[in-house]
Amino acid sequence: MGRTPASSGLGIGLSVQVAKRQRPDRDARIDAHVKVRAVAVGPRDRVPAVDIALVIAVDVAAVRRDAAVAALSGTVAELPDGISYTVLGGGAAQCYPLRGRWALAGPDDRRDAAFSVGRIAAAAEGREPPGYTGWLARARALFAERALPVRHLLLITDGSSRGEGDDTTRPDSALGLELGRCEGEFTADVIAPGAGWDPAPLLAVADRLHGAAVPSPDAFAPAVTAALGRLRRVRSPELPIEVTVRPAVRDVTLTETAPHQQRLEPEPVQDAPRRLAFRTHQWKPESRDYLLTLRADAGHDPLGVPLQLAAVTVGGATEAVVVSWLPSGTAADTARISGAVGRNIHTMNVSTQMRTALTHGYTALDLADRERAEAQLGLAVRLATEIAADWAVDEVRKVARIVDAPRGIVRIGPGVDPGAVRQGMLSITSGHPVELPPVPPAGPAVPCPHCGHPAGPAAVYCIDCGRRL
């Protein structure tokens, strides 16, 4: 959220569940369910308004200007006392405050702001728009002058100012480079009235800047209030999940499956070649589920012995990934793992495939590729039926007729509303967690008597020094 770290105010609980018996292949795939529970600690239940710098950027066409003025008046009237804020509009020009760069919300200020936002200009017609790149650069310059713990951009756009540089297909595009400059400086939510926008850059902004992109009616004030409410519940702007692995382990991946679907990118830890850090962001009191996947070479490992393949550490809590390679002749059915752990891991894998298919289907439909859209949406419906993800079936019904859900057969009619397609593309990314039944934890970690590194309760050898526990 910002360079000045706020106190986390979180207590972390961690559990790691994995099928204990595994087939000893030279390229064995091990899936583990990682659940992180964050609970609030301390006297405050939300971020103080005085710790927040907020930029509200309104980018709408002339046809939406009057509705935007009314919504913006309601928005500034509800800002909490003490919050620092700036309102931009009409080509990223400052609309409020009238003097200086930042306003401080209070009774008199809110009255002045509600009147002054009537000056806001619509996106300029006939001139080259600033693009999302221009809005981000303007916000970055403003935040550089306001060193508060929480710095957040609310970009309200109907796509009017999308520019030539707002290309998401190339990381070296103007938008990609500007997002790189903004990441770590501030966070952002995108609120999208109408349906004339291209969803790709909106999702790119929300993803890189750790916020949400949501569709909205022209009266966007409730969406702003909800976004600000989410922001104030954040207790920790960043929380790394570290995974330390044995030398025989490779290809470590970590995917968040709830509350959002996203694959996390690893970063090496200095002076720890077998440790990876996965950054996670905007933690509230909540639970998050992750699917940890490892590739391991079991060719030189003993059979039937509990082995710690990895250790997962979050906020001081550590749990181990412990498996036993089954002797030859007894491992034929281990790929079809059973029990609560197996069912949860299977559900998480299916959910990941389902969301991917749903996104690909909507994207194909937006590009008028009906054949690919039917194939991908049909796959999404089949997978959703398997894990009872009713929300995904409802999303498909908005744009297609479901002929046979268990077999994944859907048909797209001749008249599909483009607005419904684009709004659905944002809706797919916003929440819809996978419901997983609880699995009892294996027990607390214990320190290695030789080096002190935490190890799981069932581990026999230390993952760090290699000696017997």
UniProtKB/TrEMBL annotation:
All copies of domain VWFA, residue ranges? 53-213
InterPro entries noted in UniProt = VWF_A (IPR002035), vWFA_dom_sf (IPR036465)
What is the name of the protein in this document?
A: VWFA domain-containing protein
Can you name the source organism?
Answer: Streptomyces pulveraceus
